[in-house]
Amino acid sequence: MRTRISGATCVLPTGLSRVDLLLEDGKILGIDPPTTAHADETIRADDLMLIPGVIDDQVHFRDPGLTHKEDLYTATRACAKGGVTSFLEMPNTKPATITRERLHEKLELASSKCLVNYGFYIGATPNNVEELQQVTRTPGIKIFIGSSTGDLLVDQQAALERIFAETTLPICAHCEDEATVRANSERLGGGTKYEDHSLIRDVNAAVIATKRAIDLAVRHQHRFHVLHVSTAAETELLRAPQGLITAEVCPHHLYFNVDDYERLGSLVQMNPSIKTSDDNEGLWRALKDGRIQVVATDHAPHTLEEKQQPYPKSPSGLPAVENSLALMLDCVNAGICSLESVVHWMCDAPARVWDMVGKGRIAEGYDADLVLVDLGKKQTIRNENQQTKCGWSPWHGVALQGWPVRTLVHGHTVYLDGQFDESIRGREIEYDHSRGGYWNYKPE
Ligand code: DOR
């Protein structure tokens, strides 16, 4: 089966270009093929932009064990709608993904439930170094240096030194200093208001932990990805040019700040916490000047009932996969950033950070994971239209211009204008860790 996509303006590695694409066997066969080249079907895409599928390298899809919040099927419907064609999921499910056996169980589950491509991190514990050394079929190791949802935590120095010294897979971490968080919490008697969350998980907690993790990475010369940077102060730490460190920011840390607690309460309670408008600006600066390479969501659904409990019982986290691309496209329309930058942050950079084979670019031989985008389409985010099982969005009521309208996974249309092809299944993502990550791999 050969498919031609015709008439779209494509975001190629070399820039914008109005060329046709030929797809075959789930891959990009040709760019700008002769008009006479045979195709079994043609997708007309005049007035649309064609971008590589979004790769979200930080999501919590709750499957197995917490499937009243989300599961791999509902989450990947949300992905398909949002233009996310590949995801990397975190290990804080129930049971946690801390052994090869658990990882393989998750991969098996994903093969039957996921509408888009999938990958799963292995979680570090204070004593599973042997597992971390032997595991394959994973992008890398996730460390909770500060605790969040679930009970994964490694904050003893000796255990951290061992993980950085004795393993070779790339490492990413949730950086909030546990001791600082505990001390702040005690000082505030545990907190009573949602806004106390940002006083407990404060700038210091983030900076101390990020500094500690970068120090470990540099001393052990170990590749390290800082997840969800939330403060302008941390972005200063990302200036060190070691070629080892990459970093990520989430749309919610670019958008929300402590002034939003009044309007949104626990809906904007997440870890790391939201900070100030100066932090929003500092994060944008670091993203634009290349200190932060990746935009990902940390999609972390909880039911509204759970969220509505009083602080500190209210859990941290918010859903975002189905709106992250549209939020960034709206920024393109607002003149804040270019479409090429969005494609770099959400497609090419995560593929390079995690050594993904055949992903992140529109180039010959790459996987035909593609998204058609209508930069003129205006739509308002509404709770009742969300595909995520939790059924709400902190952006409810927000009007955005620029939406994905058609999503292809390995050349098959999984989402088109509000409709899903539920027969489509994504594939396990492949990694080639010999590439050496974002700074060392130079695709042709
Ligand atoms: O707010 C958060 N919630 N941050 C995390 O890192 C974990 C997540 C969750 O799993 O609920």
The gist of it:
Helix content is 29%, strand content 21%. It is of the alpha/beta class and 444 residues long.
Proportion of residues in extended strands? 15-25%
* Uncertain residue ranges: none
Average pLDDT, rounded to a whole number, is: 97
Can you list the strand order of the major beta sheet? 3-2-7-17-18-19-20
Shape: globular
The CATH architecture designation is: Alpha-Beta Barrel
Bound compounds, please? (4S)-2,6-dioxohexahydropyrimidine-4-carboxylic acid
Assign a percent range to the helix content. 25-40%
- CATH topology group: TIM Barrel
* CATH domain class: Alpha Beta
Description:
It is built from 14 helices and 20 strands. It is an alpha/beta fold and 444 residues long. The longest helix has 18 residues, at 203-220. The relative contact order is 0.17. The model has no long low-confidence stretch (mean pLDDT 97). Residues 60, 92, 148-149, 174, 270-271, 298, 300, 316-317 line the site of (4S)-2,6-dioxohexahydropyrimidine-4-carboxylic acid.
Strand and helix layout:
Layout: E1 2-6, E2 9-12, E3 15-18, E4 21-24, E5 27-31, E6 41-44, E7 49-52, E8 54-59, H1 72-82, E9 84-89, H2 100-113, E10 117-120, E11 122-123, H3 129-134, E12 141-144, H4 157-166, E13 171-174, H5 178-187, H6 196-200, H7 203-220, E14 224-226, H8 232-237, E15 245-249, H9 251-255, H10 261-264, H11 277-288, E16 294-295, H12 304-307, H13 324-333, H14 339-353, E17 370-380, E18 399-409, E19 412-416, E20 419-420
Parallel strand pairs: 1-6, 2-7, 8-9, 9-10, 11-12, 12-13, 13-14, 14-15, 15-16
Antiparallel strand pairs: 1-4, 2-3, 4-5, 7-17, 17-18, 18-19, 19-20
Bound molecules: (4S)-2,6-dioxohexahydropyrimidine-4-carboxylic acid.
